[in-house]
């Protein structure tokens, strides 16, 4: 047996996974209790989240340490690339479920409800138009969210953040640390402003437009799609912030910085999801 | 605990000991072992539920359980067997065997591998504990169709979170397998030289990555419909209950292949070994597996013919479904051609593999019959369908798991499985399986619906027969426990490195039992 | 091989004669519509094709198993591919599949053709009973609910089970023979599925949507089916019974129902006092409410709340009448406005307010219900 491959790094036994498992058990059972008003739901729920955060600090901290310690070679780097790619693909499929639901409702089931016997026997007078809160005759009216105010501005924000992030990446590649740090900071700032506008938009929707989660199918798809996107922006912004602190700590070299690249991939993915959102949720 | 640690003597690891070893381990063999033990425990739990169901159905009338509990049992039987028994068992095989088959030192992400496993017990706790909360476990069927699932109590929410957690576990496990196969192969181990088991698992892992998130989306919508007033599955609010079925089966049909493709892989390892002849049509096996996987994304609505979808939809999904018979047929023909003019012996693994081909193919034929939409409309939601999917999931997935377990047991424990007891296990399982499930075809054709605790009198005799078979089948599975414990405790004949005369592959080049760490230096495959 | 071949041949022959299996416990029920007949012969065709392939493939496999084993001195060959064979066994199945798909396609098109019906009946699935509304054709305006007729004592094993155990109802659907009946299938709470095997009809009943299907029964008789989609606790206890009768008998049935409803309306059109309402309400409760809310009013929380001791039941009249008439969205509580008359709603509510632990002591008058409907 000849030795032609560099040795692949296999980590030592680790205590963190079991923390993560307990955390998700607490998170899940806490959520169930909370939703059903049984026992100390919120307490268990937030305990789970706290434990999860602790686990992530510990686990990822160790990964960073191993990486800085030079234990990952080219092969581990390639593994990270494959895995991040497929992870993002799984996220795409998660969003696909919700986009698929929106497509199905708008293209198929609402027209069905508004025609033929569905209309004649069950839902007299229901007409198919989007936005819709469905044929229930006593539903409260709401105003849909327009596309050309905050959402358009938010699109601009996210697109710009993609540019600043690429600029930062160029800084990293050319070893201009200052450009890297500034680019990252700008990206984070744009992300946070975006989130601020999203929160404001929800507030505005609830208080002025009477557009709520229970505003029929429009409210359902609007909040779930934008909500999960917002959650992903939050996660992305946290990842960017971690990158920023790592940059400040002197991590990454022009030829070895996959953590930064993975974050950038993720951020661009979140960007692209937004573009689809903007078109099919806000605009059309 | 020490008794079931297969590689105690060769233990090179220096980490924690005792329970902490298992909790913190990053070793693919340890993790594989835990997956398998977990899945067998869940298999027994799901089996107890099945036997309770069969006890109630032993004769007409309500005797053993009330309808509420009956529906909870059918639901949890499905969820536990699919997500707790069959899937983790295959992941256990992947963990144990893939690194050894491709000459890798471990899985690509050993720490994440640990988490993939240790997420399963919390999910199992949520599922099983839901029996004991107010309102009991969810009773909406394993498919969790709304609006029925909207009516359920908090047991339903526990199932939703359990599914989320199992989904996270599956996605991480799948990514791990993909990366391991793509990036960890020994020099010279090209893709088209890989053992077929690695190929089928690679494709399965892609399916998992693609569809588990979709299931997560579906149950998330259920959750918000239940608690936050959304209207995804409520026509009054502009949604559609059938939308859930579309999303669910977009996950659900690939899921079916997630549970059978690795089985094809296992059988494709075993048949050549005992025919002492290379696998016939290796390349076409790979292409057939990929074709099945791709087709699985465009056939989902054949589970929904009775919802009354438009004509074009019915025709499209019927044609696409029929097409799946082609690559599946190719596989069966290849296996038979591998046997042809071989020099066969029938040790226990080969018996199981042959039994698999025979009985699984019967499930394939009933699948073909179910694919014909007009016939499906008659037999949808009847015992015919119950028979069909138990033929492919029990005689398919489970039999292949047993075949694989007997085949690789020497590598895991260092001891040959007890042939006499193993053969008893096989014949008892095969006979009782058919006594249980064959009559169900007739029940379904004659008009007995599924998921009922009670039935009309003309179905009484076949139900009684099925119940007797079920208890026989259930008890037969304890024989397997005996075989494994005996081998794990060092009983029986010592196994050589190449435990079966015709076995090929890198895993047979390392000693039996496999040392704690294998291929720390990559072998070169010529 | 020759013995196996002969055996298989006789089995195929046996299956090929549908009459040999008519009324059999091993096959579909005897079809009484053209669609069911097509399905029946499609299934026979499929079975024959599958059986032939089965015998072929496993003939080869078992031949190999017996001949090519080491104990018989077999030496392994070393071939592992053959492009011609592989292409053949990929192409030939495609043609076989086309042969299967062709007749199936024709049947599907036929099943979907609901045009030009002689009559239209709306079928509504409830937890756990069926409602029938005759919308068009002779008998237009007839509406009734069809419950399981098998006594609970038979189910619990306290009585001997009758011949039609679990497949008998109080009010069967009645249709004339030879007429094309179009069904508009829907549901009120969860998904059910209306299935009569002898008609070849199984259609999911989806709440909020109407799906249509049809049948033309060619033979008089009583045909039985069951709900085929899991719909909760009593899924096994909501059968379907269809009486296919001659045109004359059908007309007589329609006329009989008309006279009965006139008589009932006349009987209901009077001043009601509390005790009469309670007595009437007890009947309504037993027919309509008991499946969910239980005989003692304890319900099955959380899906079906208790009525005994309920604040809503003992509270103001308005919300109480409203929830019975309009149901409560997002819960299992259905709207009963179409199912129950004013008198029946008033009666059952009066009964509820004065039963078990509830003793409000007042009554809800039919006029209050009528007024609430007007809103």
Per-chain topology:
The complex is a heterotrimer of chains A (284), B (526) and C (375).
Chain A: H1 16-35, H2 41-68, H3 74-113, H4 116-122, H5 150-173, H6 177-209, H7 216-248, H8 258-283
Chain B: H1 19-24, H2 28-56, H3 67-102, H4 110-118, H5 120-129, H6 148-151, H7 154-183, H8 196-227, H9 241-258, H10 261-275, H11 282-295, H12 311-323, H13 325-339, H14 348-371, H15 373-379, H16 383-413, H17 419-446, H18 460-488
Helix pairs in contact in B: 2-3, 2-4, 2-18, 3-7, 3-16, 4-7, 5-7, 7-8, 8-9, 8-10, 8-11, 10-13, 10-14, 10-16, 11-13, 13-14, 14-16, 14-17, 16-17, 17-18
Chain C: H1 2-16, H2 18-21, H3 34-67, H4 83-112, E1 119-126, E2 129-136, E3 143-146, H5 152-155, E4 173-176, E5 181-187, E6 192-196, E7 201-205, E8 211-215, E9 221-227, E10 240-245, H6 247-268, H7 274-293, H8 311-314, H9 317-326, H10 342-353, H11 366-374
Parallel strand pairs in C: 1-5, 4-10
Antiparallel strand pairs in C: 1-2, 2-3, 5-8, 6-7, 6-9, 9-10
Helix pairs in contact in C: 1-3, 3-4, 7-10, 9-11, 10-11
Structure description:
Chain A contains eight helices and no strands. In chain A, 36% of the residues are buried. In chain A, helix 3 packs parallel to helix 8 (258-283), helix 6 packs antiparallel against helix 7 and helix 7 packs antiparallel against helix 8 (258-283). Chain A has two domains: 11-71, Helix Hairpins (Orthogonal Bundle), CATH 1.10.287; 73-283, Up-down Bundle (Four Helix Bundle (Hemerythrin (Met), subunit A)), CATH 1.20.120. With 284 residues, chain A is an all-alpha fold. Chain A is globular. Helices cover 74% and strands 0% of the residues of chain A. The termini of chain A are far apart. Chain B starts with 18 loop residues before the first helix and ends in a 38-residue tail after the last helix. Chain B is mainly alpha-helical. Residues 1-11 of chain B have low confidence and may be disordered. Chain B has one domain (2-509): Cytochrome c oxidase-like, subunit I domain (Cytochrome C Oxidase, Chain A). Chain C is an alpha+beta fold. Chain C contains eleven helices and ten strands. Chain C has helices at 2-16, 18-21, 34-67, 83-112, 152-155, 247-268, 274-293, 311-314, 317-326, 342-353, 366-374; strands at 119-126, 129-136, 143-146, 173-176, 181-187, 192-196, 201-205, 211-215, 221-227, 240-245. In chain C, helix 3 (34-67) runs antiparallel to helix 4. Chain C is elongated. The model of chain C is unreliable at 1-22 (pLDDT under 50). The chains are: A mainly alpha (284), B mainly alpha (526), C alpha+beta (375). Chains in contact: A-B, A-C, B-C. Chains B and C meet through helix 3, helix 6, helix 11, helix 12 and helix 13 of B and helix 3, helix 4, strand 7, strand 8 and strand 9 of C.
């Amino acid at each position: 047996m000849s030795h032609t491959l560099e040795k692949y790094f296999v980590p030592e036994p680790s205590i963190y996974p079991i923390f993560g498992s307990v955390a998700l058990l607490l998170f899940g059972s806490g959520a169930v209790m909370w939703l059903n008003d049984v026992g100390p739901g919120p307490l268990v729920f937030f305990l789970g989240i706290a434990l999860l955060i602790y686990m992530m600090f510990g686990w990822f901290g160790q990964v960073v340490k191993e990486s800085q310690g030079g234990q990952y070679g080219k092969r581990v780097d390639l593994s990270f690339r494959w895995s991040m790619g497929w992870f993002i693909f799984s996220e795409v499929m998660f969003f696909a479920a919700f986009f698929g639901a929106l497509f199905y409702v708008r293209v198929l089931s609402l027209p069905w409800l508004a025609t033929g016997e569905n209309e004649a026997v069950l839902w007299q007078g229901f007409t198919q138009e989007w936005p819709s809160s469905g044929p229930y005759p006593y539903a409260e009216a709401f105003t849909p969210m327009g596309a050309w105010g905050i959402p358009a501005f938010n699109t601009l924000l996210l697109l710009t953040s993609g540019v600043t992030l690429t600029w930062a990446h160029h800084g990293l590649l050319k070893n201009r640390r200052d450009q890297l740090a500034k680019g990252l900071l700008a990206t984070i700032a744009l992300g946070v402003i975006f989130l601020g506008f999203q929160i404001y938009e929800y507030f505005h929707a609830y208080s002025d437009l009477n557009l709520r989660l229970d505003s029929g199918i429009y409210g359902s798809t609007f909040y779930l799609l934008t909500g999960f996107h917002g959650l992903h922006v939050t996660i992305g912004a946290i990842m960017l912030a971690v990158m920023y602190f790592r940059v400040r700590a002197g991590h990454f070299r022009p030829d070895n910085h996959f953590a930064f690249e993975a974050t950038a991939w993720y951020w661009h993915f979140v960007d692209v999801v937004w573009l689809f959102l903007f078109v099919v949720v806000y605009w059309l | 605990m020490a008794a079931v640690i297969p590689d105690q003597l060769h233990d090179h690891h220096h980490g924690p000991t005792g329970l902490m070893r298992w909790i913190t381990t990053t070793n693919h063999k340890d993790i594989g072992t835990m997956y398998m033990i977990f899945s067998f425990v869940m298999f027994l739990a799901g089996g107890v539920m099945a036997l309770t169901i069969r006890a109630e159905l032993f004769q007409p009338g309500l005797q053993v359980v009330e309808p509420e509990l009956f529906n909870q049992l059918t639901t949890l039987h499905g969820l536990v067997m699919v997500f707790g028994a069959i899937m983790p068992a295959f992941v256990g095989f992947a963990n144990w065997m893939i690194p050894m088959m491709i000459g890798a030192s471990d899985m690509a992400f050993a720490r994440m591998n640990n988490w993939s496993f240790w997420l399963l017990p919390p999910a199992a706790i949520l599922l099983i504990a839901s029996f004991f909360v107010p309102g009991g476990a969810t009773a909406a069927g394993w498919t969790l169709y709304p609006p029925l699932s909207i009516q359920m109590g908090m047991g339903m929410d526990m199932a939703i979170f359990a599914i989320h957690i199992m989904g996270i576990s599956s996605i991480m496990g799948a990514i791990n397998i993909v990366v391991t196969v793509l990036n960890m192969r020994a020099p010279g181990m090209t893709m088209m030289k890989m053992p077929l088991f690695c190929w089928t698992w690679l494709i399965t892992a892609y399916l998992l990555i693609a569809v588990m998130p979709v299931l997560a989306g579906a149950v998330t919508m259920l959750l918000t419909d239940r608690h936050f007033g959304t209207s995804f599955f409520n026509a009054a609010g502009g949604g559609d209950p059938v939308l859930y079925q579309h999303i669910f089966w977009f996950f659900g049909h690939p899921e079916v292949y997630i549970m059978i493709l690795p089985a094809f892989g296992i059988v494709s390892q075993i048949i050549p070994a005992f025919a002492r002849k290379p696998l016939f049509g290796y390349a076409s096996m790979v292409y057939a597996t990929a074709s099945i996987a791709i087709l699985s994304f465009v056939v989902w609505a054949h589970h929904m013919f009775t919802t009354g979808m438009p004509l074009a939809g019915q025709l499209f999904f019927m044609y696409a479904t029929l097409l799946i018979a082609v690559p599946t047929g190719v596989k069966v023909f290849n296996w038979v051609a591998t046997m042809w003019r071989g020099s066969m012996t029938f040790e226990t693994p080969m018996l199981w593999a042959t039994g698999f081909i025979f009985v699984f193919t019967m499930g394939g034929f009933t699948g073909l019959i179910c694919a014909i939409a007009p016939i499906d409309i008659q037999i949808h939601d009847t015992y015919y369908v119950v028979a069909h999917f138990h033929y492919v999931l029990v005689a398919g997935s489970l039999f292949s798991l047993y075949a694989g377990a007997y085949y690789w047991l020497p590598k895991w424990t260092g001891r040959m499985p007890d042939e006499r007891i193993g053969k008893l296990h096989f014949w008892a399982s095969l006979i009782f399986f058919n006594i249980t499930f064959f009559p169900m075809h007739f029940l379904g054709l004659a008009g007995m619906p599924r998921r009922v605790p009670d039935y009309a009198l003309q179905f009484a005799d076949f139900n009684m027969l099925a119940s007797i078979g079920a208890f026989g089948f259930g008890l037969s599975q304890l024989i397997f426990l005996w075989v494994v414990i005996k081998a794990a405790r060092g009983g029986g004949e010592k196994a050589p490195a190449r435990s079966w005369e015709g076995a090929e592959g890198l895993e047979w080049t390392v000693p039996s039992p496999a040392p704690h760490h294998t291929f720390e230096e990559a072998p070169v495959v010529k | 091989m020759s013995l196996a071949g002969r055996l298989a041949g006789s089995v195929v022959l046996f299956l090929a004669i549908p009459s040999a299996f008519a009324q059999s416990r091993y096959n579909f029920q005897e079809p009484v519509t053209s669609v069911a007949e097509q399905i029946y012969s499609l299934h026979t065709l499929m079975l024959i094709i599958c059986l032939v392939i089965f015998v072929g493939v496993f003939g080869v496999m078992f031949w190999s198993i017996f001949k090519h084993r080491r104990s018989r001195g077999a030496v392994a060959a070393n071939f592992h591919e053959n492009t011609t064979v592989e292409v053949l066994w990929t192409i030939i199945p495609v043609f076989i599949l086309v042969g299967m798909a062709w007749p199936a396609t024709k049947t599907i098109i036929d099943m979907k053709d609901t045009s030009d019906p002689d009559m239209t009946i709306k079928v509504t699935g409830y937890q756990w009973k069926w409602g029938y509304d005759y919308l068009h054709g002779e008998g237009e305006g007839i509406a009734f609910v069809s419950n399981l007729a098998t006594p609970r004592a038979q189910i619990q094993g306290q009585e001997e089970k009758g011949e039609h155990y679990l497949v008998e109802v109080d009010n069967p659907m009645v249709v004339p023979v030879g007429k094309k009946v179009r069904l508009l299938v829907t549901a009120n709470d969860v998904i059910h599925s209306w299935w009569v095997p002898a008609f070849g009809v199984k259609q999911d009943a989806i709440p909020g949507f109407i799906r249509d299907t049809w049948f033309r029964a060619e033979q008089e008789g009583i045909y039985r089916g069951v709900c085929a989609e899991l719909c909760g606790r009593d899924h096994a206890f909501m059968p379907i019974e269809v009486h296919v009768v001659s045109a004359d008998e059908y007309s007589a049935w329609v006329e009989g129902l008309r006279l009965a409803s006139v008589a009932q309306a006349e009987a209901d059109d009077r001043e009601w006092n509390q005790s009469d309402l309670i007595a009437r309400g007890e009947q309504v409760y037993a027919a309509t409410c008991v499946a969910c809310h239980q005989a003692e009013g304890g319900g099955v929380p959380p899906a079906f709340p208790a009525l005994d001791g309920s604040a809503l039941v003992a509270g103001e009249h308005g919300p109480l009448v409203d929830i019975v008439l309009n149901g409560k969205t997002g819960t299992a509580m259905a709207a009963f406005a179409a199912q129950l008359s004013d008198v029946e709603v008033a009666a059952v509510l009066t009964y509820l307010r004065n039963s078990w632990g509830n003793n409000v002591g007042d009554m809800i008058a039919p006029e209050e219900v009528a007024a609430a409907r007007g809103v």
